[in-house]
C-alpha cells in the first residue's frame, strides 16, 4: 500500500463516526513501520508498554482527522522489535496492573514478553507462525502435510519433540515417515505445528505466571501445548485488549 | 522429468563409451526415487552401505544398456531415508575400512551417518541447506540478507548461537538488528548460515572421529564450524567417493 492510500482507507472505515469537529484517531502496529503510513519511533525496553505523548502525528488532507501513531518497542540485545503488541500489553495491564510474569502473544511472529512492575522488562520474537507456513508451502515437506482437522495426538507428539530441542533435526522425519511407512498428511501437519510451538515454548518457566493473549484456534493450540509442558496459563482476547489499551492511552493523554 | 526421458538423457551422456556388447550402468540417488526412472527399494539399517545384488534392473529400449539402480537406505525410528549417499559411504569404507565414527555429508539435506564395523548403524537427515535457502528466499528475513563474500566473524557468531540451541528463537533478531541499529545484509547471511549449521552440529561428540564428505565452499563452512565447536574433522571429496563406491560395487558384483 502506498502512503497516499492510508487516509482514504481510514476514512472509508470511520466516516460514519466523524463529526464536524476534530476526531482523534489512535493507531498502532505496522501502520507505523517504515513501509506504513508514517514511521513511528521505537521506545527502548525496559519501559512501560505505552506512554502518553509518545505518538507521532500524521499530516492528513481531511481537517476532521487528528491521527496519531503509537511508538513500538525495541530491545538492543538480543535485537528485537514489536509494533502493536505494546498496546495489547497496556490493555492487559489496565485490567491486571499487578501482574508479573510472561505474556505470550501467538501469531505470525509470536512474542514472549516479561512484565515486571508494570514495565516490559524484555521480550523475544519467535517466527513460529511464519516458519510453519513457510515449511508447509515451500519446503519438500509440502508433499507430506495437508490441511484438515487438528490431530491432538500428533500435535502432542510434536510438542514433545520440539520442547526437547529436536524440532530442526527432526523436520525431515515428517517426510521420511511417509516414505518408510504409513503417514497421514493431516496428522503430519499437526505434528509439525507441535514441533515448532514446542520449540518456542521450551524455555518457559512453569513456576512463572503466564498469560496467553489471543483467541481462536491458534490460541487453543498454545494453551494445549502449555498444559502439556506444565505451564498453567489462561487466555485473554487480543482484540479486547487492543481496545482497552487504546482507550487507556487516549484517556491518559486527555487527562 | 517424465520416465521416458531418462534413457535418452543417459545415452546422450554415455554414447561415446558404448560398444557393441552390453554395458553395465550402475546408478544411484534420486534416479531411484518414486519420481525417478524406476523406484528402487530401501535397505533397512543397520546394514552395510551397499550390497551386491541389491540393485533394481531397469528395462531399456537400447539393447546395449544394462542399467541397474542401487537401493537406498531407510531407518524406522526416527524415520529417515537416503538415496545416493550410501554409495559415497561405501566408497569411503573401501578406502578406510576400519573407520568407526561419524560421516557428515553436507548438502540440501545434510546427512549424519554413524559407522560401526563397516555398517551404517544409524543416520539422521538435517534439512539445513534447504532451510537456509527457504528462509533467504521466502521469509521476512529476505529483506535482511544479501549474497556476498562470506563473513567468518558473523558466521562464527551464528555457529555459537546455533550450537547453544538458540537458532529458532534468534531467527527474528537477524531482521531486528537491521531495524534497531546498523546491520550488514551480507554479514547477516553468513550469521544465518552459521546459526543453522551450528544447530545441526550441536549434538556431535568431539571425542568421536568425524569425517566430512563433500567439497567446495559448503564443505569449508562445515569444517570451520566443526573446528569452532572442537570437533577435529578432515574432508574427503564426495565425487571421488561416489566413483569409488560404484567401482567397488561393480567389482563385487562381477566377482
Automatic annotation (TrEMBL), chains A, B:
Q: Which InterPro entries did the record assign?
A: DGOK, DGOK_C, DGOK_N
Please give the Gene3D superfamilies that the UniProt record associates with this protein. Answer: 2-keto-3-deoxy-galactonokinase, C-terminal domain, 2-keto-3-deoxy-galactonokinase, substrate binding domain
Name the residues that span the membrane.
Answer: none
Lineage, top-rank taxon, reads Bacteria
**Entry GO MF terms:** 2-dehydro-3-deoxygalactonokinase activity
**What GO terms describe the biological role, i.e. biological process, of this protein?**
D-galactonate catabolic process
Report keywords, A-Z. Answer: Kinase, Transferase
User: Can you say what this protein is called?
Assistant: 2-dehydro-3-deoxygalactonokinase
